[in-house]
Amino acid sequence: MALPQHLRISQSENGDYWPGFVDALATLLLVIIFLLAVFTAGQFALSQALTGRDEQLAELNARLSTLAEELNLARSENERLTLRVGQLTQENQALEERNLALSSELEQVSARLAAVSEDLAEEEALSEEAQATIALLNNQMAALRQELARLNEALEASEAREAELESQIVNLGERLNAALASQVARLAQYRSEFFGRLIEILGNRTGVRVVGDRFVFETDVLFPSGSAELSQAGRQSLQPIADAIIQLTTEIPDDIEWVIRVDGHTDVVPLGPNAPFDSNWELSTARALSVVEAFIDMGVPPARLMAAGFGEYHPIAEGRDPASLARNRRIELKLTDR
């Protein structure tokens, strides 16, 4: 198809530029391809170089690890050798000290050997005197043996006498025990007779009773309240007992040791502030002494009497009722051995 006239005119005026444009693009494309080829080749070369360096670096790291291990081993060996050197040094010092000690000991032994040699020479010079001394010692030893034999004989005789004396002592002990048992039995018999006589004398008197092996008097029968002075009625109550004790002294043989023990007891009620005694203990002791003094006044030998006070610490009745308190306020008489 034919171009319009104005287009053909324009194309002819501007010239044909497409071939040049195509040539320029082709040239640019070749340059780009060349650059890509160069870049690819450079990348490949660089990659090869880096790969070689990585291998060298890995090899160097492995070598470095090996050298580090060898260095550690060398250090350990060095420390071990250093320690061994120290030990050997100490052993060497110890050996040197031991050598010095042995040298000193050798010198001392040499000195002692010299002294012994001198002593031996002196002993050889004194051998005759030593023999005479030995003979004298032998004679003395023989005499001592004879003396020892005599002493053994005397010891055997003494042991025999000691055995005989021990047998006599045993016999005396048995006889003494038998005598004591006999005296105790006789005293028990007299005690029984004495208490039987007192029971007959006192009868069923109020305030007097037998408790075991003791005669018990309620102190209300003998003393006013809080006082240690015997009442007239109390003295009259004690007179038959004193007569019985006096008769008892004529009946019991002199070889039997006996006493009438007078024990004073009180109740637990404390004394008043105006009481003549500081405690019930003092009151009980004073009452026992008053009874003993009354017996002495009535003719009882003082050697056959003994007084003791126990306060409120040995009651025979529990409770704080009037009857129990009255029973605990008492004087006890007991015939016992001295």
What would you say about this model in short?
InterPro entries: Bact_OuterMem_StrucFunc, OmpA-like, OmpA-like_sf. The chain has 338 residues and is an alpha+beta fold. It is built from 7 helices and 5 strands, in the order H-H-H-E-E-H-H-E-H-E-H-E.
What does this structure look like?
- InterPro entries: Bact_OuterMem_StrucFunc, OmpA-like, OmpA-like_sf.
- Residues 57-175 form a coiled coil.
- The chain crosses the membrane at residues 24-46.
- This is Peptidoglycan-binding protein.
- It comes from Marinicauda algicola.
- It is a single chain.
- By secondary structure, the protein is α+β, with helices and mostly antiparallel strands.
- The protein has a domain at 185-337: OmpA-like domain (60s Ribosomal Protein L30, Chain: A, 2-Layer Sandwich).
- 72% of the residues lie in helices and 9% in strands.
- It has 7 helices and 5 strands, in the order H-H-H-E-E-H-H-E-H-E-H-E.
- It has a 5-stranded mixed sheet with strand order 1-2-5-3-4.
- Helix 3 (127-202) crosses helix 5 (232-251) and helix 5 crosses helix 6.
- The longest helix is centred in the first third of the chain and has 108 residues, at 18-125.
- The chain is elongated and about 185 Å long.
- It starts with a helix and ends with a strand.
SSE arrangement:
Elements lengths: L4 H10 L3 H108 L1 H76 L5 E4 L2 E5 H4 L9 H20 L6 E8 L14 H18 L7 E5 L12 H7 L1 E8 L1
Parallel strand pairs: 3-4
Antiparallel strand pairs: 1-2, 2-5, 3-5
Helix pairs in contact: 3-5, 5-6
| Helical stretch tally | 7
Order of strands, main sheet, comes to 1-2-5-3-4
CATH architecture of the domain at 185-337: 2-Layer Sandwich
Work out the helicity level: over 70%
Sheet-strand content, in percent, reads 5-15%
CATH homology group of the domain at 185-337: OmpA-like domain
| Overall outline | elongated
CATH class of the domain at 185-337: Alpha Beta
| Average of pLDDT | 81
As a whole number of angstroms, the C-alpha radius of gyration is: 68 Å
How is the CATH topology of the domain at 185-337 named? 60s Ribosomal Protein L30, Chain: A
Structural category: alpha+beta
| Beginning-to-end CA distance, first to last residue | 182 Å
**Secondary-structure element string:** HHHEEHHEHEHE
Could you give a short account of the major beta sheet? Answer: 5 strands, mixed
Low-confidence stretches: 5-13
Count of β-strands: 5
Protein name: Peptidoglycan-binding protein
Coiled coil: 57-175
Domain OmpA-like: 211-338
Organism: Marinicauda algicola
